Amino acid sequence: MAGNEDRTGPVSQDPDAAEKLKNEANEFFKRQNYNRAIELYTQAIEKNPMSAVYYANRSISNLRLENFGYALNDASKAIELDKLYTKAYYRRAAAYMALGKYKLALKDFEYVTKVRPNDHDAKMKYNECNKIVKKIAFEKAISVDKKEVNIADTINLDAMTIEDEYEGPSLEDGKVTLKFVKDLMEYYKEQKKLHKKYAYKILLDVKAYFQKQPSLVDIKVPDDKKFTVCGDIHGQFYDLMNIFKLNGLPSDTNPYLFNGDFVDRGSFSVECIFTLFSFKLLYPDHFFMSRGNHETLDMNRVYGFRGEVTSKYTSQMADLFTELYNWLPLAHCINGRVLVMHGGLFSKDDVTLEDIRNVDRNKQPPEDGIMCELLWSDPQPMAGRSPSKRGVGCQFGPNVTAAFLQKNGLDYIIRSHEVKNDGYEVAHDGKCITVFSAPNYCDTMGNLGAFITMNGKDLKPHFTSYEAVPHPDVKPMAYAHSLLSMFCQ
């Protein structure tokens, strides 16, 4: 993936050539080839490093690729070059919002409204962001008052009635069955909604299960058995159905691990998560789920999941999801030889599997440390470590991967978290594999999705790539916060 590094050394300035490069980059941006656009904006900056527009354009390209750290840096540089350039403040505010730093975003909007008091668009963005800041402050005040209350404890299933007209899937004696899951998937394909009583029962049962699990789950795969690892799904329910069509439904003999980011961005996240949770309850020892960076409150608030749950059910259920996600395991180790996590490795050496196993995970991820980096970090081709392009976690090189594997007696790691053109990427001399299972991510990226299969004996990864399938006309980010949609759609 293209970076933001500006090459050092003397560069001959050529504003005309820079403008041509910028115009070419704009065309690639329009075609949603953001990596190529970034490369060309970078070349334009080399030819004319004093143009705020070039930095702001590279910033929005990085926003589209979720490189929030790079986007933040570029927007700040654009502001440094032109303090009156409103777009740069908007770009930086979007990056701050994506990172959950709403008060800093509000400051940028506030500055624009002062500089341009008659700009109605700026005033509207300021007011929208201010609403979020006030809402979060209100939620925090309530949570302090109700510190000891678990949402799960407040749910009264007995008070919920199944109406006579409900014709959807039903739990059998309160339990998930194979018939229930199959009926549920068909019901969802017709864009119908599971009854709230069954939805709540699934959530309560799944939460109770995950509360008993360690932060690092050990998986044993017999020598002659297949095991499948899937990456990000991001609310793309119809592509999830395609995975099961290609690779078979989960079962005792067809186990799966889904490696985080089940929700957000795609507008069928509710359908995805209830399908996955149903399989977890049906096959608890043969269906596994890891926490991703999008199974968190800040991400869900901005990228659509919280809005979707509130729209399809209630805000109380959205709160229950937040509570439940805190209990999702952070990593899985297959046969003691392959470690699977959503993000990546660590900013410090000497981290052990036991350190991961001992993480107290029942919380929102902190901004640094083992838990944060398991969810957020990314590999890089060069040796050593670098600050994260995302603004959270770190970037780690092949030597970091090799040292971690050697210390912990592992063969390789599997992680997800990044869009890849083929749905997967093998890096770090085969020791760091990325798998991403949401094809044509956000209906814009044009990438394939992929999953990994292996057997328990040699654990050699085999890759299956696939294209996106059609879905009903509900756009990605349909439930996302309107303010972020203004920047990122």
TrEMBL record:
Residues 194-470 form the Serine/threonine specific protein phosphatases domain. Signal peptide: none annotated. The active site is at residue 294. This is protein-serine/threonine phosphatase. Its cofactor is Mn(2+). The keyword Metal-binding applies. It is an enzyme of class 3 (hydrolase). Keywords: Hydrolase, Manganese, Metal-binding, Repeat, TPR repeat. One of its GO terms (molecular function) is metal ion binding. It comes from the Eukaryota. Gene3D superfamilies: 3.60.21.10, Tetratricopeptide repeat domain. Belongs to the PPP phosphatase family. PP-5 (PP-T) subfamily. InterPro entries: Calcineurin-like_PHP, Metallo-depent_PP-like, PP5_C, PPP_dom, PPP_phosphatase, Ser/Thr-sp_prot-phosphatase, TPR-like_helical_dom_sf, TPR_rpt. Its EC number is 3.1.3.16. TPR repeats lie at residues 18-51, 86-119. The keyword RNA-binding does not apply.
